[in-house]
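Please review this one.

:::
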Amino acid sequence: MPATARLFTPSEAAAVTGIGLKAVNNAIDKRIVKAAKPVSGAGPARRALTSDDLLRVKLWYKVGDILSQERRERLFDAIRQKPKARTVKADDLLIIDVGEARKQIAARTRALEAAEAMVSQDKEVMGGEPVFRGTRIPVRLIASMLTEGTDAAEILEGYPRLDERRLALATIWVSAHPRRGRPKSLKDRGFKLKSARRTTLRRDPRPTGTDTAG
C-alpha cells in the first residue's frame, strides 16, 4: 500500500518553500491554492497544503507579478498535464524551470523531515521544551542564537554534542514549528547566563549635556 502523501501546515509550507508565512496564507486567501482538508489535532483545525500546492505557491510567489491570473492558470494546467516536465511554457516568451523548483522543495522537505527526527519533546526533559534528541539542549535556543548572529563555531564550542548539520536543521525546524503565545525568556526556561560580552556603543545614546555626576 503506498504511503499517504504528507500534508503541510502553512508554517511548514513556508519553511519548505523558503517564502514567508504571510505569503503562504495570502496565497490561500487569494485561492492561488485550495487548502486541503484541515489538519486535525489537539488544537484548532489548521489549513493544510499538499506538495503540489507548495509548488504552486512557490511559482506564484516568484512570478506572480509577471503573470496575469489567466496566464497563471494556464501555467498550472500545463504543470498538471506534464507533472514530470522540467520546463513549462507559461506563454510564448516565458519558460518556467519547474524542475528546479521541485528540486528545491524536495530537498527542503527532506531537511524538514530530518529536523523533525532529531527533535524530541518529553515533559520530563526541560519541562517539555523541544530539545535535540539525546540531549537537554533546546532547539529554539540554538536557532535563536544563530538568528541573532552568534557564530556557528562559537555555538559548537559551547555545545560539543552538536554539529553543523544539527545547527542547520534547527533553523528549519523552528521555522516550521513557531512557538505559540509569548516567547519565553531564558530565565523563564530555567537557564542562567554563563558569560557576557561587553561591547562599545557607536555613540552615546544619552542627550548631549546630560549630567552624569552622582
